[in-house]
Design goal:
With 298 residues, the chain is an alpha+beta fold. The N terminus is likely disordered. Helices cover 39% and strands 28% of the residues. Helix 2 packs across helix 7 and helix 8 runs antiparallel to helix 9. Strands 1-2-8-7-6-5-4-3 form an eight-stranded antiparallel sheet, sandwiched between helices. It has a two-stranded antiparallel sheet with strand order 9-10.
Length: 298
């Protein structure tokens, strides 16, 4: 019997593994900066990488896969004041505005107890009954005048995954600039490992991440693949959602949702090698309806 079909369970199982890949993002490694000075020191340590990189902007991505665990980080500098960004990110409802930008997130609502209920699905319109429910706890770890840290947590995930956590840190660099750190980590068991291996043998075989791990004979960069590639693609999708949300803040409130959609899609178009997403018109039509459905449920 074909190994990929055994692991993935056919086409239906295949999209469930894609949902697993989507979920692999939403976690945080145990080591956060914990205060403004530490995060500012990290900015100084990454100064060279932020100044010169393939992204052509102040952004750095890293990832690693251990025995039974996965971890990734994005650091980025924003030309916006800390006070403005921190105030927006502290609102739990704004995280639904952020997460819904991802094409696999079909719905998000806030429940009492600081819970975020997500519906995960495929990259086209679906009834919520056909999606995978998933819940996160929203935690404000630290909210000081010069430092913000918040986390999204989930104890369990699909296919034997566990200990989901995403952490966001933010600190001012000066009166006009801020430094952001998005971190994630999770644990996975044998079932999740086999499912991901099946995906990487089939649908994800030729897909790559962002980290450059070598050079080809013609001098072109060789990008990381495998599970590191999966998690780098997903963390970039979610980072671009955070970036789109923050960059849309100056727009009038009535037009911010549309502005976020346009910014997110423009962001993914910068990276056609890694991110293959729905065309703009299809994405906008799908997301406008999903956002309206989300607003109607509040």
């Amino acid at each position: 019997m074909d190994l990929a079909r055994t692991v993935l369970g056919g086409a239906e199982g295949g999209w469930r593994v894609l949902l697993l890949a989507c979920l692999l993002l939403l976690l945080a490694p145990p080591a956060a900066a914990q205060d403004a000075a530490s995060l500012q020191d990290r900015h100084a340590a990454l100064r060279e990488q932020l100044a010169s990189n393939p992204f052509q902007r102040p952004l750095h991505i890293a990832s690693q896969v251990g025995e039974g665990s996965l971890q990734g980080d994005i650091h980025a500098r924003f030309e916006q004041p800390f006070t403005v960004l921190a105030a927006a990110l502290q609102e739990i409802g704004h995280w639904c505005d952020i997460l819904i930008l991802h094409p696999n997130v079909k719905g998000c609502r806030v429940r009492p107890g600081d819970l975020l209920d997500l519906n995960l699905g495929r990259k086209f319109e679906q009834p919520l009954d056909d999606t995978q429910p998933f819940a996160f706890r929203f935690r404000m770890v630290s909210a000081r005048s010069d430092y913000l840290q918040l986390a999204l947590d989930a104890d369990r995930g699909p296919l034997g995954t566990s200990a989901y956590r995403m952490t966001l840190e933010l600190a001012p660099l000066d009166a006009r600039r801020s430094f952001l750190h998005l971190s994630y980590a999770h644990a996975f068991g044998l079932r999740a490992r086999l499912a991901m291996q099946g995906y990487l043998m089939t649908l994800g075989r030729d897909k790559v991440g962002f980290s450059i791990v070598g050079r080809r004979d013609d001098g072109q960069p060789l990008h990381v693949g495998g599970m590191r590639g999966v998690v780098e693609r997903n963390v970039m999708r979610y980072y671009l959602a955070i970036e789109a949300f923050l960059d849309a803040l100056p727009a009038p409130a009535a037009s911010q949702a549309e502005h976020r959609l346009q910014l997110w899609h423009a962001g993914v178009r910068r990276y056609p090698l890694q991110l293959q997403e729905p065309e703009l018109d299809s994405y906008l039509e799908m997301k406008r309806r999903e956002i309206q459905r989300q607003q109607d449920s509040r």
